[in-house]
Amino acid sequence: LAVSGPLLGAAAAGGAAYAATTNSGVAGSVARQTGESVASVGDKCKEINKKHAIITRSSLMIKSAAKKTREFDEKHKITSTSIKIGGNSAVQGAKKVDEKHHVVDNTKLAAKKAIEKVKDVNQKHHVTEKTAKAASFTSKKVLEGARFVSRKVMTKETKFATTSSPSA
Predict the structure, then answer these.
(1) What is the maximum alpha-carbon separation in the chain?
(2) Could you say which DSSP state residue 25 is in?
(3) Among 18, 82, 142, 151, which residue's beta carbon has the most beta carbons within 10 A?
(4) CA triplet 150, 153, 155: central angle to 5 degrees?
(5) Block means of pLDDT (10 residues each) for the chain, length 168 residues?
């Protein structure tokens, strides 16, 4: 699912683009209006940033805070002192907690059970197969959309080339 999620997102975006360019019905209208809304929001963000220099000011504030933090740490030696004091004791403390509570073993067992549960759910609900079918269907639609757009562009270029060529 972690791998197929981004792929399905990209495929869905392609499907939306396909719907926006080929569907004159409700789905195409919704896809076009959504695209226009997103573009409008992006334009408004650019306008606000241009007027108030938000990105530049935020970047300067972050750089200033980082510089002051480094200066404070250099002056008070917080990082180096913490490493010296806590480094060894943290490792020893973690070992004691693991010995007492078996954290590593319990984590391995929990991971094994989680994997088994995922396999059970997958077998019961055929998640992998359904995801693969959905991805395949969507990718086919994306390819159809790309071919459609390509044909439209080629048709316009051919028309332009034939109408703009000199007559004999």
Answers:
(1) 95
(2) S
(3) 18
(4) 105
(5) 58 66 71 71 80 84 88 82 64 82 87 86 81 78 76 63 55
